[in-house]
Inverse folding.
């Protein structure tokens, strides 16, 4: 089962390495990892997506909670409603003939054109994992030259 976990931590050096090391040390493959500041400059939020056994994950979460700089751990896959998004930037080969078709596809997905050259176009899209996947599948025949994805960011729904 896939799990999206949000970990609120003190913004100090070494915290990310300890958290990632704990998951990898317990045999979890980290599918996505995202770290960034919060509205409080003393705190950062780590969002990690991992696949694994529920019982082993429960143990790992308990261990993460014991780390000294960890403030709060939330496993969003435990029935709690949440909103998740990721960002993808994709550079495609294009010609004068294919450029308008690529821009048309982009508008359907509400993607933005962020760079255009005579031989390439770079697009930006935010959305959930299935939207990103569908977007990339439709663009693949045009020739993806480069691709960068952020991985999931997640916050709980409601107040």
């Amino acid at each position: 089962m896939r799990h999206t976990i949000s970990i609120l931590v003190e913004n100090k050096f070494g915290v990310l390495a300890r958290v990632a090391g704990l998951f990898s040390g317990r045999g979890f493959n980290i599918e996505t990892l995202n770290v960034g500041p919060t509205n409080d400059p003393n705190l950062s939020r780590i969002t990690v997506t991992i696949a694994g056994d529920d019982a082993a994950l429960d143990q790992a979460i308990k261990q993460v909670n014991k780390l000294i700089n960890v403030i709060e751990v939330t496993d969003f896959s435990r029935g709690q409603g949440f909103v998740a998004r990721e960002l993808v930037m994709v550079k495609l080969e294009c010609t004068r003939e294919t450029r308008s078709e690529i821009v048309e596809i982009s508008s359907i997905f509400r993607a933005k054109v962020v760079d255009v050259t005579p031989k390439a176009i770079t697009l930006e899209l935010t959305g959930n994992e299935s939207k990103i996947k569908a977007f990339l599948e439709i663009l693949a025949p045009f020739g993806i030259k480069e691709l960068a994805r952020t991985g999931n960011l997640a916050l709980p729904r409601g107040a």
About this structure: The two ends are 27 Å apart (CA to CA). Residues 3 and 90 are 26 Å apart (CA to CA).
